[in-house]
Amino acid sequence: MFHFYEAELIAAHRYKHRLYLKPTTKIPTPKKEAPMTQAAPQSTHFWQGNEGCAEGAIAAGCRFFAGYPITPATEIAEHLAKRLPQVGGIAIQMEDEIASLGAVIGASWAGAKAMTATSGPGFSLMQENIGYAFMTETPCVIVNIQRAGPSTGQATKCGQGDVMQTRWGTHGDHAMIALSPNSVQEMYNLTIRAFNLAERYRTPVVLLADEIIAHMREEITTPQLKEIEIVDRKKPKRTEKTFFGSQDIPPMPAVGEGYNIPVTGSTHNETGHRYTADPIVHRKLVERLVGKIERNADQLIEYEGYNIDECEAGIISYGCTSRAIYETVELAKKEHIKTGFIRLKTIWPFPDRVIQRMAQNTKALFVAEMNLKQLFYEVKRAVEGTVSVFPINKIGGGEMITPGELLSEIVRRTRNLD
Amino acid sequence: MTEKFSARKYLRYIKLPFCQGCGGLTVMNCFLRAVHELSHKDLSTFVFCSGIGCASWIPSPYFKADSIHTTHGRSIPVATGVKLVQPNLNVVVFGGDGDLAGIGLSHLIHAARRNLNITAIMVNNMIYGMTGGQVAPTTPLGAETTTTPYGNSEYPLDATRLVVAAGASYAARWTTAHHTRLKEGMKKALKTKGFAFIEAVSQCPTAFGRRVGLKTAADMLRWFKENSVSIEEAEKMAEDKLMRKIVVGEFIHREFPTFTDTVYEVMREARNSA
Ligand SMILES: Cc1ncc(C[n+]2csc(CCOP(=O)(O)OP(=O)(O)O)c2C)c(N)n1
Ligand code: SF4
Question: Which of A209, A227, A245 is the last residue of a domain?
């Protein structure tokens, strides 16, 4: 068995290449793709959302990917398996999603920008290690391409049912950063932003996309690499000794650099040493970890807004569902209803303030999402009863909420309010 | 190797967490001796990954080194990420039998299958020690534990043979009663290019020994000695005679391209063809 194994190992991929070189076979000219290692000129492509995400990761400096196949996220792994080695990176398939995020965490401590990609079932398996990455302040990006759950649900159909899991999925007190793209362009842009936020705040960041955005194809423009803002984690000075406190966002050494860092998911003091009985140490640590995200909410929150300060009906939406709001606004105009919207690009931390701003001058807010009222309650919490909030929901079969459906709900509710 | 051995140079000055007579201390001592005899002045070229459990405390935070104390059972995936990104570091995993052969078993098998070039040291105390003595996948048939009050109705797992079958480069099992051979095994494991596995059968008088009539560490060590048989002897013995025995020795030692070898080879080829 061993001889076979060895021969196989040595010959495996060489053999594959030699096959192409058989005289009868025409040698395929490799497709020239702009190598992302050099600054590629600004260019336009017709990409799938998952491709946009994978290329965004490479542009952001991601050099390690570990994943496990799952619809509808698999294309990210497939694309990175091809592209990462070309730019000196590593893409591996692990035995499950727990191991995938584990390897990403190890790679991050070894100094690499690292990412994994999955969907609901895998995201559920990752929850324990997401908490670990949060507690140990390990920058990493977790892409969740949402599909219709719970459980295996409708595996190939779109859903937006992981919004609250993203916020609260792992146990214990914590804060999360989650970004929500609504186009292929944003799959690219927000993946870069996810890496930048992970590196800047030393925390895991979730790119919370959905099947529709991940699988559709659109035109996308990639800027010149030198025009992209890239953030790298703060490295310690030689004399520094505290990598787990004393500043809001401490510097992060890598293993092998001589700092002798003890990394642990147990409660630890500023030098990383575990303190599992002292109430003050726990309070200080967890409050800092939550606080560094909550206090920076203004920097983290991004949204697209329209008529926020004066509209009769305000729509709040995100991801694939939010693609219907533009037409809804036009349709409502014809019905003489002035409509505005907030399209969330950052879901967590939740943008309370802009929602409250919209609530001041509107009759009603509408929360449209492909789940059974997940962000709806969050909006209700934010507006504190100052305005009526109505849910617009649809699940199953990957069917989107149409502009017509949005409109009829808006018409019905706003007219009733008169 | 003229310098006298002192574990102190590798350790932080923190009180160790182990019970009196715990085999974890022997494993720690054997490992540091192995490191010393391989002429490592310090642990600066090492990264330690461990999970959750008493055995996982051996390196972290007590070793003066980089250590990543992961979630329960996930030390090997984390070690995989570290090793792939920094292939020149010596990555060593410590864990209990529950950690590596229970909750984390699939990672152990796959690391062996990939021939991931790390050393994994499994401290097999045949019990879940840290949580107070529940049945483990390595607990002998019939043994009383807190969750098998009428005796264990499951057969124990032979983790060493399992990693051999999965493709490990090096695998050996010794007990804490064989500390010289355990240390020599660790030296070989550390020098092995591919996946190296050491199973250290170890005494846990607190959570296991006292429940099976072996009250002290000395009783347990005597039990290990009396019941250990070498691989060669075991081959000549009938299956039923082996029931209560601990087969010790070197199960495999072979070298072939490692996971980082092939991953980096793929990377070189991809870069050249890009
Ligand atoms: C996911 C998860 N489940 C359960 C536990 C509780 N737990 C902590 S240590 C341990 C068992 C450790 O046993 P073993 O790995 O054999 O190590 P030992 O303490 O015996 O050295 C368990 C079950 C945990 N920490 N995490
Ligand atoms: S409980 Fe057992 S394994 Fe844990 S420290 Fe005590 S003797 Fe060692």
Answer: A227
| CATH code assigned at B206 | 3.40.50.970
- CATH code, domain carrying A49: 3.40.50.970
Q: Are residues A183 and A78 in the same domain?
A: yes
Residue B129 CB less than 6 A away from ligand 1: yes
Which residues fall within 8 angstroms of residue B204, CB to CB, at 6 or more apart?
Answer: B19, B22, B23, B54, B125, B126, B127, B129
Quote the crossing angle between the two packed helices A325-334 and A403-417, to the nearest 10°. 50
Distance of CA A69 to the CA centre of its chain: 17
Residue from A6, A13, A109, A171 whose CB has the most chain B CBs within 10 Å, to mutate? A109
User: A321 in helix, strand or coil?
Assistant: helix
Number of domains composing chain B: 1
How remote is the CA of residue A384 from the centroid of ligand 2, in Å?
53
Residues A92 and A196 in one domain: yes
Ligand nearest to the CA of B128: 1
- Give the global pTM: 0.94
Residue A193 lies in a domain: yes
Helices A375-383 and A352-360 meet at what angle, rounded to 10?
60
Counting ligand 2 atoms within 8 A of each CB, the residue from B18, B123, B138, B216 with the most, and so the one to mutate, is: B18
In a domain, B83, yes or no: yes
pLDDT in tens, A219-249: 999 999 899 999 999 999 999 999 999 899 9
Mean pLDDT of successive 10-residue segments in chain A (418 residues)?
A: 39 37 33 44 92 98 98 98 97 98 98 98 98 98 98 98 98 98 98 98 98 98 94 96 95 97 98 96 98 98 97 98 98 97 98 98 97 98 98 98 98 83
Cβ burial of B106 (10 Å; 0-12, 13-18, 19+) is middle
Closest to B206 (Cα-Cα) out of B23, B14, B45, B73: B23
- Is residue A200 one of the residues assigned to a domain? yes
Residue B48 pairs with which residues in a beta bridge? B67, B92
Angle, in degrees to the nearest 10, between helices B105-114 and A97-109: 70
Q: Is residue B6 part of a domain?
A: no
At A417, the amino acid letter reads L
Q: Give the list of residues 6+ apart from residue A346 with CB closer than 8 angstroms, or none.
A: A177, A178, A179, A180, A300, A301, A302, A303
- ipTM associated with this complex: 0.97
**How far apart are the C-alpha atoms of A67 and A142, rounded to whole Å?**
10
Number of structural domains in chain A: 2
Q: Strands, DSSP E only, in A256-394? A: 262-264, 303-306, 313-318, 339-344, 346-348, 364-369, 388-393
State the residue range of the domain holding A329. 304-417
Contacts of residue B210, Cβ cutoff 8 Å, sequence gap at least 6? none
Cross-chain residue pair B68–A263, CB shorter than 8 Å: yes
Main-chain dihedrals φ then ψ at residue A305, nearest 5 degrees: -125, 150
Task: Please indicate, yes or no, if residue A247 is contained in any of the structural domains.
Answer: no
Residues B111-125, buried b or exposed e (16+ Cβ, 10 A)? bbbbbbbbbbbbbbb
Which of B25, B50, B134, B204 is the pocket-test mutation for ligand 2 (most atoms within 8 Å of CB)?
B204
Range of the structural domain that residue B142 is part of: 20-273
Quick check: is B132 in a domain?
A: yes
> Of A227, A260, A293, which marks where a domain is finished?
A227
CATH number at residue A317: 3.40.50.920
Q: Rounded to the nearest 5°, which phi and psi values hold at A122?
A: -70, -35
| Residues B95, B66 contacting (CB under 8 angstroms) | no
Show the tokens assigned to A197. 């936020």
Whether A288 maps to a domain, the answer reads: no
**Is residue B3 a part of any domain in this protein?**
no
